[in-house]
């Protein structure tokens, strides 16, 4: 990215400033840059390098989101596709789901961030590195932001993507209710003098595991602690003690290149917005890493928020459009919190919990429960409540192969520029978007075949769909244009009179 040093004085005003350049902040920056919004990132790391990597991959909907922007192949080229969806330790196969990406991607977070950061750099987003937001004040027209090097920035909006201990959330006075941790884990990458027991096991405090890293010599350790502890700066002695408490040996662990701690603390911001300050990713919600939801949830927050914030900044939509970010994403976050709490509880090692785990595993082998939970964990079943109507309304648009005047096209390729699309599948010219033509791309197309949605199955074929930049359907035509103008106004603003 275009790093801004402390000596730079040219640009101190931006439409949007993002605090935090992790996965959520980077994705949000990309979305805003695609919409031609002046956005900048403030990131405490001097480089994008990440020691260790908690998140281990992408779920199917996140891969779809990247495909919608035309960059999925960059990630697929460096990861390994696999069936990664699971509830606790019960695998959930999605290979029969109707999506081009009916799999997950094993790709450590440090690689994900590196690839994502390179794309954001291509989009020309400035990055104020090696510094943090230390204070801010908002007024009716914007936010004054103070950085740790004394520099000041001015933005119309500030978005906190600065993690679970978010300073932005705290200084905005947004409450963070939830539950304190019941377990804590040490996670490390290191060498061991003697051969350890490899694989995952259950114990009184949950899951214990040691696995080989890519080099075949070093290991990655995830280990429950006997006593619940907090703070992400544990010591090597604490790791040795934890290993000895369970296995009677520390395996001569040494040369630790990364050591951290995580817990199942579960909290969600009471509001994702306060005035001109918004939250996304871990700043808005923290939870157990069970089911691998965190990174994916944050990236999808960013894609929901980005186009809405862009339209408000550009004066195309009223500020009330931002309220739909809270309305749509807060319930999705709450659902993830609920199920990660359940997955953490079911991973305990006592005999009663083991019986419950085995019962759930048997249940999830049945087709309907498998599809329900797999759809939820993969993100493919996300449904925003946009009112009654066609089953497509509020759901992800399938990546159909449609025939346009320029030839065969995948629907996702129509979303590469992060612009809304009206896909007219009926009589050519029957629908007119009139004064919204400068904001919404209209595509006349034909499609022959059944419409299938994950979990729901077959749905009635519509004659048109209005697809938001995030890939969710905002309006469905069923032979008429009834409700189209209302949907265009709701999501893309009142047209400016010529």
From TrEMBL:
Pfam families: FAD_binding_3 (PF01494), Rng_hyd_C (PF21274). Its cofactor is FAD. This is FAD-dependent oxidoreductase. The lineage of its organism: Bacteria, Pseudomonadati, Myxococcota, Polyangia, Polyangiales. The keyword Lyase does not apply. Residues 15-339 form the FAD-binding domain. Keywords: FAD, Flavoprotein. One of its GO terms (molecular function) is FAD binding.
């Amino acid at each position: 990215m275009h790093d801004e040093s402390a000596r730079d004085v040219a640009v101190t005003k931006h439409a949007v400033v993002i605090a935090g350049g992790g996965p959520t902040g980077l994705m949000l920056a990309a979305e805003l840059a695609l919409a031609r919004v002046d956005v900048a990132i403030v990131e405490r790391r001097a480089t994008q390098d990440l020691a260790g990597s908690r998140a281990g991959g992408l779920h199917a909907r996140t891969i779809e989101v990247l495909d919608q922007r035309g960059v999925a192949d960059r990630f697929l080229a460096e990861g390994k596709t696999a069936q990664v969806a699971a509830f606790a330790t019960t695998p959930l196969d999605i290979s029969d789901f109707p999506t081009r990406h009916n799999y997950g991607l094993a790709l450590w977070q440090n690689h994900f961030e590196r690839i994502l950061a390179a794309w954001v750099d291509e989009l020309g987003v400035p990055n104020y590195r090696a510094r943090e937001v230390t204070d801010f004040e908002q007024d009716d027209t914007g936010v004054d932001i103070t950085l740790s090097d004394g520099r000041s920035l001015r933005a119309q909006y500030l978005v906190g993507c600065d993690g679970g201990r978010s300073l932005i959330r705290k200084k905005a006075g947004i409450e963070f209710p939830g539950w304190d941790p019941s377990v804590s884990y040490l996670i490390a990458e290191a060498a061991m003098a003697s051969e350890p027991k490899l694989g995952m096991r259950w114990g009184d405090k949950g899951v214990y595991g040691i696995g080989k890293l890519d080099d075949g010599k070093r290991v990655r350790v995830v280990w429950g602690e006997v006593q619940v502890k907090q703070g992400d700066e544990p010591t090597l002695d604490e790791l040795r003690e934890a290993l000895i408490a369970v296995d009677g040996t520390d395996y001569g662990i040494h040369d630790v290149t990364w050591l951290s701690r995580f817990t199942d603390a579960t909290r969600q911001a009471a509001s994702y917005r306060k005035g001109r300050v918004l939250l996304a990713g871990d700043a808005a919600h923290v939870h157990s890493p069970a089911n691998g939801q965190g990174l994916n949830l944050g990236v999808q927050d960013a894609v929901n928020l980005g186009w809405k914030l862009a339209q408000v900044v550009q004066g195309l939509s009223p500020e009330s459009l931002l309220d739909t970010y809270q309305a749509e994403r807060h319930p999705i976050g709450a659902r993830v919190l609920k199920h990660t709490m359940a997955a953490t509880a079911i991973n305990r090692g006592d005999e009663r919990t083991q019986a419950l785990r085995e019962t759930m595993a048997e249940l999830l082998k049945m087709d309907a429960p498998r599809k329900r939970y797999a759809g939820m964990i993969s993100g493919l079943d996300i449904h925003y409540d946009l009112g009654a109507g066609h089953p497509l309304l509020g759901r992800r648009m399938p990546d159909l192969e449609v025939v346009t005047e320029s030839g065969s096209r995948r629907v996702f390729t129509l979303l590469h520029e992060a612009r809304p699309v009206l896909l007219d599948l009926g009589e050519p010219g029957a629908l007119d978007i009139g004064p919204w033509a400068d904001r919404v791309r209209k595509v006349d197309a034909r499609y022959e075949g059944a419409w299938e949605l994950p979990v729901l199955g077959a749905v009635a074929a519509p004659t048109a769909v209005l697809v938001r930049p995030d890939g969710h359907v905002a309006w469905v035509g069923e032979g008429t244009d009834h409700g189209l103008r209302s949907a265009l106004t709701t999501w893309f603003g009142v047209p400016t009179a010529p």
